[in-house]
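Minutes, structural biology subgroup

Action item carried over from last meeting: produce the structure token record for Inorganic phosphate transporter (Thamnidium elegans). EB confirmed the sequence was re-checked against the source entry. Recorded below for completeness.
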Amino acid sequence: MFDWSRIVNHQLFNIASFLVLRQVTSYFGLDHSENLDIIRTLYLGSQFIVIVLTFYLLYVIKNKNDTTPLRYVIPGEKQWNGTQTTDTLIETTHMEYDIEDVKKRLNQGFTHLVAVAFLHLKYGYIQPLIIQSILSFKTFFMTKEARIHFFGGKTNHGELRRPFRVTGIFGIANEKSQPKTDKGSIKRAEKALKTK
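Output recorded by EB:
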């Protein structure tokens, strides 16, 4: 079966779509002052719609009320002085996990909104408004929660299996920072909790 989400989420697709949108904006002259109010309205409207869709996604997740237990271990991180923090055992449900992840993305969305607004108001950049007006929908609909709860994605295997893989900058995943679901890691984390 054709995996369209892998192509749309690929970094080359993001770069290509950015370059195409940039050329379209320069070709149609959307950065002229008479179009500025339209572009600002388009940007604010798209951000408002994405926020409303995010709250609707939270509503759908709460209505499904998936109380399937989820246990995993977050590996400890290396501190600046070379010491390693202990692994953390997380016990939650699928619903709580999804809600927490959507809230993190909502906070990231507000951060992006502030950053783009700063670039526009301080330096007069217009293209980020246009690009984010379109890419914010792509970003929302490609989130794992939207694919699960809106498009019926299967969560028993692959990238939609909870807990989700942690990806860093440019989609690179550090294997040492991935959540662990094996019984050995969970038992070691439980033992560490009992000894505290």
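Discussion: The longest helix spans residues 94-123.
Next step: EB to file the record with the rest of the batch.
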